[in-house]
Amino acid sequence: MTTPTDRTTNTDRTEPAASVGELALDLSDDLTAGRWTPSHLDRRLARFLVLTSAGDGQLTADRLRTALWEGGEPLLRQPDSRFASLLAQLIPGTASVLDDATVHALLRRLTPRR
User: Fold this and answer.
1) What are the residues whose beta carbons fall under 8 Å from the beta carbon of 60, sequence distance 6 or more?
2) Which DSSP string do the residues of the chain spell out, in sequence order?
3) Do 97 and 90 form a contact (C-beta atoms < 8 A)?
4) What does the pLDDT look like over 13-32, one tens digit per residue?
5) How confident is the model over 31-87, as pLDDT tens digits?
6) Angle (CA) 106 96 41, round 5°
């Protein structure tokens, strides 16, 4: 049986990769269950993406690249880089996930409320 963690770290390339929506749902489920705690940087990048896509709701490749650039090396050196992996996987398939409600919902959950 494949658990959410197994799907995100699976090195066996014979199985199809999980969709971006599934990865976002896994992170959201782990957040709810307390199995994943986003870092301050994860939350900052989520806020950036929510704010930059507020006008049109589009997670464009340029916006995603800017978020990854902003996070830079510290983002990749985090103990759990699943959020960075999710963002990176969005770029090649941006056209198919522009309106993915699961991804947008995860970003909004990670955005700190003031």
Assistant:
1) 53, 94, 98
2) ---HHHHHH---TTSPPPPHHHHHHHHHHHHHHTS----HHHHHHHHHHHHHTTTT----HHHHHHHHHHHHHHHHTSS--HHHHHHHHHTTTHHHHTT-HHHHHHHHHHSPP-
3) yes
4) 334 457 788 888 999 999 99
5) 999 999 998 889 998 999 999 988 888 888 888 888 888 888 787 778 788 888 888
6) 30
Return the amino acid letter for 99. Answer: D
Q: What distance in Å separates the CA atoms of residue 88 and residue 19, rounded to the nearest whole number?
A: 13
CA dihedral 7, 66, 91, 38 (to 10 degrees): 20
Whole-model pTM: value is 0.69
For residues 45, 50, 55, 59, the Cα torsion angle rounded to the nearest 10 degrees is 70
**Residue pointed to by tokens 């199995």:** 35
